[in-house]
Design brief:
single chain, 245 residues, alpha/beta, Rossmann fold, 2 domains, six-stranded mixed β-sheet, four-stranded antiparallel β-sheet, 10 helices, 35% helix, 27% strand, globular, transport, ATP-binding, amino-acid transport
């Protein structure tokens, strides 16, 4: 097991009167893609938002790259090298694809300052971004918006990507494109924590997996082991993969 880049120890999160996370213990190994799975309402999105500082942990510790980030502000956490792609994608519909990309790049004030080689690499992953470079992002299809959201997260090198349900509502051809893009991302020494409902998507990409239920991690291990054990899938996720090919 490679060392953990991100570690959550006994993390609790309250949102108003609601106690959502009940002592989450999670390790995300450096350089791997970790899948965070679980039924709806298990606490997966809350976990990502708590890591990002959008919601404060009420108890427990979150460490990233050896630093305690539990009480840090969201901009500080982003500055440390974490990018977050929320489920609603967080793109600016009135702005062009180009403007969206520029806004996401902290080190560039003008388009000429973007790393051209990196931009070409992103265009290779998502050709639609080049094609619609000057189009308003709001006019893109759902799949293209998702590609833009991921492109924005990787416009500069990041140590860790937090991505919430990237395949949700996408057509199979777009999902296949996403899978190949994430495979390529995995080769670049980027660590990824990915929340996903689509088990087929998860098993093709995940190195390690953590399963949540009711605000806790109830299973951790290799993705391959879970993918091969239908009994365990049914127990943890209430699904039989036979129905999800």
């Amino acid at each position: 097991m490679s060392e953990a880049l991100l570690k959550l120890e006994g993390v609790h999160t309250h949102i108003g009167a609601y106690h959502i996370l009940h002592g989450v213990d999670l390790e995300v190994p450096r350089g791997q893609l970790t899948m965070l799975l679980g039924r709806n309402g298990a606490g997966k999105t809350t976990t990502l938002r708590t890591i990002m500082g959008l919601w404060q942990a009420s108890q427990g510790r979150i460490s990233f790259d050896g630093q305690d980030i539990t009480k840090r502000s969201t901009p500080d956490i982003a500055q440390a090298g974490i990018a977050y792609v929320p489920e609603n994608m967080g793109i600016f519909g009135d702005l062009t694809v180009k403007e969206n990309m520029l806004l996401a790049a902290r080190s560039a004030g003008r388009i000429e300052q973007l790393d051209e080689k990196r931009l070409e690499w992103i265009f290779g992953l998502f050709p639609a971004m080049k094609k619609f470079w000057l189009h308003p992002a709001g006019k893109l299809s759902g799949g293209q918006k998702q590609m833009l959201a991921v492109s924005r997260a990787i416009v500069e090198p990041r140590k860790l990507l937090l991505i919430d349900e990237p395949s949700k509502g996408l057509a199979p051809a777009i999902i296949a494109n996403m899978i190949s893009a994430f495979r390529e991302l995995k080769q670049t020494d980027t660590t990824i924590l990915l929340v996903e409902q689509n088990f087929n998507f998860a098993k093709q990409l995940g190195d390690t997996v953590a399963v949540m239920d009711d605000g806790r991690i109830v299973h951790r291990g290799a993705m391959r082991e879970l993918a091969e054990d239908e009994g365990l899938q049914t127990k943890l996720l209430g699904l039989s993969l036979a129905a999800h090919h």
